[in-house]
Amino acid sequence: MTAWTAGAATLAPAKINLYLKVLGLRPDGYHELDTVMARLDVADRLWICPAESREDTLEAVESPIILPPGFCGPDNLTLKAAAAFRRQTGWPEQGLSLRIEKNIPLGAGLGGGSSDCAAVLSRLNQLAPNPLNQKELEAMGLTLGADVPFFLQPAPIARAAGVGERFSAPPKGFEVWAGAEIILVNPGLHLSTAQVFKNWDLTNEAAKNNLAPISQPPRVGENSLLASARMLASELETVVEAIEKFRPAAWGLSGSGPTFWLCEPGVAGDFGRHPQWWVRSVKIAQYPGLTGCD
User: Fold this and answer.
1) Which of 192, 88, 182 is nearest to 135 (CA)?
2) Is pTM, for the whole model, over 0.85?
3) By the 8 A CB rule, do 122 and 10 touch?
4) What domains are there in the chain, each with its CATH number?
5) pLDDT tens digits, 208-250
6) Which residues have CB under 8 Å from 50's CB, separation 6+?
7) Which of 2, 183, 199, 221 is buried most, with the most CB atoms less than 10 Å from its CB?
8) Annotated catalytic residue 294
9) Looking at 15, 21, 80, 102, which residue is catalytic?
10) Is 270 a catalytic residue?
11) Which of 44, 56, 116, 147 is catalytic?
12) Please, which residues bridge with residue 24 across strands?
């Protein structure tokens, strides 16, 4: 194996869903989606270097996010990514030493675990003597998680179809969100993604009729899962009320929650009456020359 060291950290950015429409339940049991995702400038940091043994290891360094017991165990997606890459490419033969600094809350609808996974795949592919092509890399990512391919493709904002693996340019009007400053609000609770989707299945005709047509045009902030998420956690009503007081230009739920985003720069400090909430001012990744959300 060619000698290499960890060097600078590899960034694993968060994402939000600027729009998410569930079109129905597919015959394979997955849900057909139409969504617009955007990468953010808040990110986990990972360091990857050769280990002294043939075993892959993961260590969490001190970070602002409280991690549960077992976080660094074999179910962590970074370790699964390393194992998947080795199975497909035969490289590296030596074990890997992974270190991670978590800055994205877990189970927040921000894609943190998927982004960590994609960061490992991307970094290993850069270092591999016989790298995979983009299509192969995204196909491998999809076996590990539906959001992983988004973090492997280059566009900061992209429309995704299928379970989230088929990409196209964002709809007209969405590209102006590149570079926009937004506020993230997470009330510090855990929502089961599977349960949120199950609630959607129980309350929507589209789940029975399989599949509804795509609504045109997509509306910024629309999220089919918001109603079912609110059914699961009454605390989300408090968040919605707090956000609506600002009358933001746009706001929405990211993924299946529980993190909300709103386009109202400068109000992060106004959520201080809820010290248990995770609130951050962040920016959406930018295309050259395009900014703004007003």
Assistant:
1) 88
2) yes
3) yes
4) 10-168 (3.30.230.10), 174-283 (3.30.70.890)
5) 888 888 878 899 999 999 999 999 999 999 999 999 999 999 9
6) 1, 3, 4, 92, 94, 95, 96, 97
7) 183
8) no
9) 15
10) no
11) 147
12) 32
